[in-house]
Specification:
The structure is a homotetramer. By secondary structure, chain A is of the alpha/beta class. The first copy, chain A, has two domains: 159 residues, Aspartate Aminotransferase, domain 1; 243 residues, Aspartate Aminotransferase, domain 2, CATH 3.40.640. In chain A, 38% of the residues lie in helices and 15% in strands. In chain A, strands 4-12-11-10-7-5-6 form a seven-stranded mixed β-sheet. In chain A, strand 16 and strand 17 form a beta hairpin. The two termini of chain A are 31 Å apart. At the A-B interface, helix 1, helix 2, strand 1, helix 4 and helix 5 of A face helix 1, helix 2, strand 1, helix 4 and helix 5 of B.
Chain lengths: 432, 432, 432, 432
């Protein structure tokens, strides 16, 4: 049986990305994936922002191979290990301390949803109240707690049980620019008759990646933080997809001077695609009983090896952040030019840093572009409740030439899509 | 700051095992862990049964290093990869097919709790009913869905919200040998006035490891399966800790001729301590919509490398299983002799295969033995609602000499504990 | 349109008793109902034990007409009224005080389910814990809280939402006489791994009327009360159907020397069929904020008029109780003789006081007897999860002759049913 | 013990109105209550709109006494009775039919909360979906289902369990006049990522009486009905307090041409303060199984006697409605003049029909007026989340002179309150 047949026959029908990108990948390096035919695919998805430093980064790989070759301990639950201590020290010294953060680090299990589940438990334990405020089009994970703060109805329905103890509130600009959604939240919280009660916490993404690359302004986030303080609720930021430099700083919230009580981090933290997840929690809320939350894989040392090395390489000074910010401006400018050049596509550019996107009025366009890009050996995904948003998530280390190459392919694909759809007088391209 | 100080200062207070085994581990090989002083610790815990094939098994390590050295793709979400196909093929050919199982393989995320959350969703979707039957002293995980089928109240309270849609039913022999708990379950299911309703599924561990090494008999499990069939409920086995050879066969249920609809597998499946988890689901229940359950780290290829290699090494024929069964008999016999020799300890031997345990009437004894063993450079854990059970989980590959060494240390520790506690006229040993 | 047509056309299809007893009632007096044709029906149902003192008792009617004729206040919410004070005084002086009870009286709204909802709130507020233990085949009402402690699945399914925060435990003798269900409950409560947690209260009926006239022994109830005390849970008795003399004493629990923390009373308390309901709560648990539970009809004075008068008439000394106990013995003896005479009917007698019943192995018999009785102008209902129990609930004031007449009709009907079904060689009666 | 002492000693501390109006009432006639001293109190509360036709209306009393004097059946569960048929016929012929409504009538139990619980069950059964949309500051009752659609947090907290399966949405003008709350609801419903999902129904009061006499416009209600139709949700109106003529028509919604799928009616339906409640449900949603919802007191015939007679007396033609509308205009005009005359009171007039109110900026004023009115022998209540609204609910039959007398007392009390509070230069009145 060939490999694609094996997958179709033996794997559950729940598989999804393989349906959009039907080729068998074998190798990966930097911003490229390679299939078994040796064809190179430009990667503008980066494993859902897990590969911010590119695939198989040589320095990270070196550290990993050194570690693994020498019989260092791989799996140590939450016992002490050299690597755990080294990672904690590096994370403290180079990430937390310079940013004035005194948060403690919890290892809640190796995935983002473990971190979100822990954050929810922390808020509920710290306040003794069950409710949590989440936002329209939020995405926080697939386990029952995380799903309860996720907006997507298709995913929610998958639970098979009602999802409770959460309030879904309108995100920034959800109902137009004239409607201040924090004022609305505040009124609901202050009004003893609103039915909302007194939640324990707010959990928020600074940019809603899965939800459609919806960007919250710094002002809105600050107002939200103030609202939390005023109403005695924990302010919790889910930085799983937006953290690790994706928006141009290590944390997505630091440029706004925010001071979240709890932060969840995962995806690119290992820098090498190894499962790792942490929860940052202020000491005053770090009131767990020992073992009150646990999990088997919360001591996966190899992931800490690359995580520590990635911090040393990229976050010892500002140079990498500056570089990401420069690239971000370039991508943003090119996308702005693109939507201006093709007004018939009715696209709007959104995003922060290296998470840029184009939302299309016609909900079929983004998916069609993604398919056309794939034909041109490029991986790019869609987002939003109706997949109406084309989302650019290249590795942060992508060279300028490759960024331009990707943007060219997007334009070429857009043109092809417009032609396919007969929009704006475009003709089918010869090479379709 | 020394490494233990770093951990105490920077890591969350939720950490637990490090409190029982306060040393910093650096290396690991086979059945031994080594701390930074170079001291060897005999490992009778195996990372909570994650290291069934021992630490840093050379053949697995070789396959892993080969894979990682050659820029093979590490992280591929649920896109097709060479390694995904190869793992699926091997798992199908060497595990499922020889056992007459036609289950599909789902990658639900890399940890056990991801698998359990998926299993619960499957049962609810397949039946359209929310309820799930779980058992007293069950342990299925820490995310909200898995926690709802977990018995431990301390863990449940950590949720901070009521845990719903589950029925806790008495496990095998829960209420003594004369009370048939399946008859009780059946009556509750058949009686339209019982308040239990019509659950979607039963989820069960064949041995409750965390719950105190409570062993279900084959007869009880078969009766439970029949009960599920009769009552149109899915029969789901959580083989996360009991699978991968721990009980003497690949699956813990195969010797009883059971035919579960859904099986969760994790922990030792990668064989190397790498996070990996799968759900096995019969095709008739594999009715997911694409992407209805997802998760970032469900395409962690390096874990599939060692998982495939482990199957090839250990499960290509019966020799390894036979060896484990032999060792199990030896351990069991020595424990039986031990409790007979020290009747004043009021111990009872329990377990299956290489998951053997001694339950003590006096709830302080097991923990005290564990501490004494640690002083003697051995890692062994307790289990049960009051930590009253000493649980032996050595790697399955542990040499007979090391097994005996561990059993000697347990006896020595028991004697020391009895002396400390002034039980049965034992005198404090000179070397305490 | 004739009256039955009006009902069939204009009333919701949810109506039920009218389907079993399809005639239009007009008058009622003592133990008889009369339809529009003037036919008298012997009433062995008493409006589900609402008419314990018979229909239109002349003394109660007199007090009521006096009250209503003189423009006394009918509806006063929970403002003070003469009648409210007079009822409270009488209830205190003649019911509570002689029984050594210092409970406070809450008016939770005029129906039993209002009382149960209040009781649940009291337990949860007093303990800060949400869980409540209820029993298999319990019936406590149809609103969402009461339904959550009701066993009947058909009724529960009507909720349309999962019913949570309750644990359904086996009632007395639920699993045979050898299985002590309180020991089971105790073990589940003591075991930190049982999944049951720490409920706030137990709510129990001393006889489960709707559930099939299942009788709890005094020993079992005392053990249950002890279990509550030991486990810091409120002991709550739902005496809605069993109270007001039905079992031979004012409260069903007094002969066992029980001391419940909360008691719900309704149905026959007004004695005249007027909606009234009270919750008795020990002062230490009467910790409501003013208005924390309210309801429009909690000051329905006419119901208090007859309630007060009924207490004066029937509960000023022991004579009525003694009389009920005498009648009960007679009914019980005749039923015992009946099942002995017709062993082929495989009936078992159950009950306490004037709530006696026959449970039949063949689940169709009880309903068929009820139908045959109706043909013979007698009203008698069935109970139990499968309507397999024939339930005798005549007014407590029913004359001995009428009791015998009813029992004769039951025997006649049983014989007819056995004949219809071809059981035991009975021949269809000529008058069928 | 005097009567007030009896109440204080024997009744639960949950009592509330008696604290605001501490006198013992004995008689009642028309718009007046009389205490044991024979003092008359002008009633601007009408038992929370239960006594729309005044206390002890002679015609209703006559019908009731006739019925009760002649041994007509009082309590008949849901068996057929003459009175049940007569009430259904009258309700159909004089209320439903002239308004083009073909709803079936369900008797869900005798109180408003029974009706709301039934309505919720109907919506959930008809759609198979658990969610229900309710509004900020809604009040629907105190049992667990009704409480879950009630906004008031103090009442909700009384539940002691999380209240689930409902979405609290902003009522008309909740967030100012520029923010269209139906557009907001519509967006939340249409957006697959909003987290709101697909509710089964909307339940709404046309005027939120308890919530502060918040008035929904006809346009808003029509838009809400359209939204329900478009989104396949039942449109359910709770007319318990607003129905029976309170707003100037029999139903509060008829003047807007609305066509609700389900309507709950209670409070004044019996017209005499007797507990009665009905649910009106369109035939297509009347899909109950027999007995799926039940309750003891759903056949309380005396309440049907007065209910039938009240319809005959007041709703056989338009004259009563017209009269109520005239009085309403008068009350409204006088309140408007009042707030204009005392701008320092910062009052705003709200209401529809004979449910008029003044909301005060200073949250203490309304309560203080109520207390001053009581000193002047008048009963009037407050409403709103902070009791900041003075609510006028006189019987609809109140004579114009008495209305004016009440309005004079309100003005006098307002003046006294302003003086007490030192607002706007008012001097304490001599007679305070």
């Amino acid at each position: 049986m060939d490999m694609m047949d094996i997958i179709e026959n033996y794997e559950s029908v729940v598989r999804s990305y393989v349906r959009s990108f039907p080729t068998v990948f074998e190798k990966a390096r930097g911003s490229y994936l390679y299939n078994t035919e040796g064809e190179a695919f430009l990667d503008f998805f980066a494993g859902a922002s897990v590969m911010n430093y590119g695939h198989n980064h040589p320095e990270l790989k070196k550290a990993l191979l050194d570690y693994l070759s020498n019989d260092n301990v791989v799996h140590s639950l939450d016992m002490a290990s050299v690597m755990r201590a080294r990672f904690l020290e590096t994370f403290h010294d180079r990430i937390l301390k310079p940013r004035g953060m005194n948060h403690r680090v919890q290892f809640p299990g190796p995935t983002g949803t473990n971190a979100v589940e822990s954050a929810l438990k922390i808020a509920r334990k710290a306040t003794g109240r069950p409710g949590v405020v989440a936002f329209t089009n939020a995405f926080h994970g697939m386990t029952l707690g995380s799903l309860s703060v996720t907006g997507n109805q298709f995913k929610r329905d998958g639970a098979g049980v009602p999802l409770s103890y959460t309030e879904s509130m309108p995100y920034d600009s959800y109902f137009g620019d004239d409607f201040d959604t924090i004022d609305y939240l505040e009124k609901m919280l202050q009004d003893g008759g609103s039915g909302v009660g007194h939640p324990s916490a707010v959990i928020v993404e600074t940019v809603q990646a899965e939800g459609g690359v919806n960007v919250a302004s710094g002002e809105w986030l600050r107002k939200l933080q103030d609202c939390c303080r005023r109403n005695d609720m924990l302010f919790m930021i889910d930085d799983i997809q937006t953290g690790n430099g994706r928006t141009g700083h290590y944390f997505s919230f630091e440029e706004f001077g925010l001071d979240p009580d709890v932060v969840t981090v995962s995806k690119s933290i290992s820098g090498f695609g190894f499962p790792l997840s942490i929860v940052l929690v202020k000491p005053e809320y770090d009131i767990w009983e020992p073992g009150e939350h646990n999990g088997t894989f919360r001591g996966f040392n190899p992931a800490m090896v690359t995580a520590k090395r990635a911090i040393e390489l990229f976050w010892s000074d500002d140079s990498f952040a500056n570089e990401v910010q420069e690239k971000s401006k370039h991508v943003r400018a090119r996308l702005a030019a693109l939507v201006e050049k093709y007004p018939e596509a009715q696209g709007t550019v959104r995003g922060r840093g290296m998470m840029q996107a184009v939302a299309f009025e016609n909900e079929d366009i983004a998916g069609a572009i993604s398919q056309h890009c794939f034909k041109r050996n490029m991986i790019i995904e869609t987002a939003g409740p109706n997949d109406e948003v084309l989302k650019l998530l290249p590795p942060l280390t992508t060279e300028m030439d490759d960024l331009d190459r990707g943007l060219d392919l997007i334009e070429e694909s857009l043109r092809a899509v417009l032609a396919d759809m007969g929009i704006g007088g475009h003709q089918p391209a010869a090479n379709q």
